[in-house]
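B., you asked whether I could sanity-check this one before it goes into the benchmark set. Here's the sequence:
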Amino acid sequence: MTEKIAFISVYHKDGIEKFASELVALGWKIMSSSGTANYLKERNIETIDLADFVGKPILGHRVVSLSREFYAMILTRMDNMEDVKELNALGLPFISLVYCDMYPLQKEIEKGSKHEEIIEKIDIGGPTMLRAAAKAGRIVIGDKMDADRVIKWLKDGMPEEENFKRELAGKAEFLVGKYCMISANYLSNGKYETIFGSHISNSVYGENAYQAPSKVFQTNESRFSPDKFKLLTETPLSYNNFCDRDKILQTITHISAGFEINFGERAPYIAIAVKHGNACGVGLGAKPMEALEKMIEGDVRAIHGGSIFTNFKIDEEEAETLIHYRVENNGRRLLDTVTAPDFSNIAVEILARKKGKCRIVMNNNLADIRVEDLDRNIRERFIRDGFLTQPNYTFVPNFKDAEVAGEKNILENKNVLSDLILAWGIGCTSNSNTITIVKNGKLIGNGVGQQDRVGAAKLAIMRADDASESLKLGANADLRDTVAYSDSFFPFADGPKVLIDRGVKIIFATSGSINDKEVIDSCTKAGATMVLFPDKQARGFAWH
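And here's what the prediction gave me:
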């Protein structure tokens, strides 16, 4: 019983010899089954074959590790003398570590394989041995990312052994649970579904101070998953900070994708301010400072206490602009969060406020946003006693395919096309119904969350007027040469009329209303141009 035996059985074998060699160097013996045993022996790693104790695999390898003897090696309780005595009488060794991955069932389903091929990828032995090892308090590895952690822990003398093993055991059960749900979903033709996540942090509280505790869970891993954002200051992110981040990631990735698809190049420098989940200031610029100044000018009042996102580094000059630009009487603008690809030390110092109350968050990937960064994961939303699912909103307009009613060559103007992309990227990721007005790479007014198009248009104009007055440019904003975006079609001509009467000449909307002809005719007669995509393809309703 003094021997340390590790059982290793993996589907993905590349690199497993390094882990096994590390264990051997630490005095462990390796046991494995058929394929993995042969793989390790071919690489000169001495391996005990499980078949020596339980017999050769049967039914064409379908039954390998599923035997009483094997599970006796894992489930024997070392503190139970009867268990130990029986294991010795059977001449079986005691297994202290189990490393097993599972057949790639999800990939087989995604390949569109035949039913018979998918069934063969439903693993039985892997989940069973992981669960047995977890129950028995063994060292259990179900994720290859934990292999190096285990080796380091062993070399360090196995500190906090019980807690470490329990963490690994919990993860193994979690992985098996996810795996079983993939099978359940497939076999039931989608009848059974759930959401799995791993806890990564706590929020200060929920949407309101009395909604505590609030926790953050991660379900997938990507360049913009929660674990890729590093908090540089003291105060934890709030529930609302995470919600705002989710919304603004949609906005910045859609804008970036729009530029890549229509111009074949990266988007300019982008700065976005968000308040209660909706963009209140957005600026595009050839330089970071231009983008920041446009963003702030879009709504000087609303940006106070808001969250900022950029796709460029924040240095001293950018930090000073965020805090002081367009602030009267030498005051200081208060911000809740600032998220960027990178920050200089002095920028963090300028922005952080007392005790780090302005949360500074870094993710290097924001400097290089690509079309493939659009979130394509299924969207889930809880409702009373259930939840909804739907595909994500991944439509990106290629304006070469747009229907243009009015000035036919309008899309040949690069500035107009840039503003249309910006207006769409903001509007389609704001709470519907939304009308968004943009001019020269700057958000002028975002009329979000309204019950009708006229109301949304009036709200967008009102916000533009408020911003103009705050900048002391007059009570009425100059909306000439602006473009407007509507996240769906106009059911009547009254919505576009509100915009056109204030000087808007280009309107991006969808088609699909029974009154399309009346709406389009009224716009073109008033000298405005409509840029249209079918509603079933391009509608941008979001965040009901």
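One thing to flag: The domain at 395-538 is CATH 3.40.140.20 (Cytidine Deaminase; domain 2). Otherwise nothing jumped out at me.
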